[in-house]
Amino acid sequence: MYLASAAVLVMELLKLIACVIGLAVQEGSVAAAVRTLRAEIPSRETLQMIVPSGIYAVQNNLLYTALSNLDAATYQVTYQVKILTTALFSVLMLGKHLTKMRWISLVMLLIGVAMVQTQGEAGDKALARTVTAAVAAVAEKAAVAATAPTQSRFVGISAVLTAAVLSGFAGCYFERVLKSYKTSMLVRNVQLGLFGTLFSLLAMLSTDGRAVWEGGLMQGWNGNTWLVVLNQAFGGLLVSVVVKYADSILKGFASSISIVLSSIIAAICLNFVPSAEFIVGATVVIAAGYLYSL
């Protein structure tokens, strides 16, 4: 078993490196990219990235706490509240106007995703597709911890609801920063990545420092581990593109549809048999997307 905290740190480093390389290509040379970073990094805008980076770090810990105190089905259903919190913060922070039909479609999306993800044993396997890299990596530990006598449902529910609220706030805050300035998205991701790497390093040292010292940063890694980390890293960069050119609500729709698509692929490639509940939920998700577009 690889260390979750180490995987998150490597993921942040990969995103940072990818953005620096992308900036060098965009600017035409490494020297030009360095000049741009020297001008942009020591700025007030960089400090603004502390907020989403710090929130994501707290969110990861809250989700682990939730997974350690709740069964998979309860966790999956409750965490979908982030769909509504994102919409709420879009209205409060970004001044978006959502029609009654769009609010209805968002509630439908919440219900549909919850139905897709609660399928007994299949729901447990889907868990790794629904959470951040840090939480996905420790899902197996959390499943064991959830059977412990110290499990607290109140703590679990409180943690997941708080994480849902933070998810909505951080997403809308990041969207506002991306769209409020003319700064290159690559530079913005470098700014975010610097703090993300710092917080990830601190988290790794505090939780797994001794294990890393004794067994190395990449103990337990294999090809599948690299696939997970690379997917999370470059998937995170794609999220920035979606938020920049669309918005946080549409990002939520994209994530929800990806859950449906990944389950369909699993049905084709991994002999996963969809339940009636899954089929109804997938239909509701698609219908919600259509209604939101009207």
TrEMBL record:
Domain of life from the UniProt record: Eukaryota
Protein localization: Membrane
Pfam families hit by this protein: Nuc_sug_transp (PF04142)
GO cellular component entries: Golgi membrane
Signal peptide range: none
Membrane spanning residue stretches: 6-25, 103-120, 154-174, 186-205, 225-247, 259-292
Keyword Protease attached: no
UniProt-listed Gene3D superfamilies: 1.10.3730.20
Membrane topology type: Multi-pass membrane protein
The keyword rRNA processing is assigned to this record: no
The entry's keywords: Membrane, Sugar transport, Transmembrane, Transmembrane helix, Transport
Entries under InterPro entries matching the protein: EmrE-like, Nuc_sug_transpt
Major localization listed first in the record, in broad terms: membrane
Single Gene Ontology MF annotation: pyrimidine nucleotide-sugar transmembrane transporter activity
Protein name (Swiss-Prot/TrEMBL): Nucleotide-sugar transporter
Source organism (scientific name): Blyttiomyces helicus
